[in-house]
Amino acid sequence: MGRMIHFEIHVDDVERAKTFYSEVFGWTFEDWSGYAGMPYFGAVTGDANEPGINGALMKRRGPSPEPGQALNGYACTMGVADYDATEAKILHHGGKVALPKHALPGMAWQGYYLDTEGNIFGIHQPDENAK
Q: Which phi and psi angles does 16 have, rounded to 5°?
């Protein structure tokens, strides 16, 4: 036991965050607010037959992260087929670069971004030729 099975992204503007994640990664959302007793939207991140987990967007219950502050939590990383195309979508939909694309030599391309709510997330494109 102890395997991660769900994630939550805390957001200031639920609709803006839903738009960002659906446009960049193709996620869909289900309204679970009645069950949770607050604005809470289940995030379906992909096909149930593929590796990965689903999560949720929830209304932030405190101040937003300050720019430049250290990460206080987990950084979720999404696997992508085309790093550069995904980065273009992130930037087009209001995201910002937190740590630029870099090689994990012989493994992948990796980078970190801020979503529209100031949360850090990563993208990861496997590539054994990365250097």
A: -60, -45
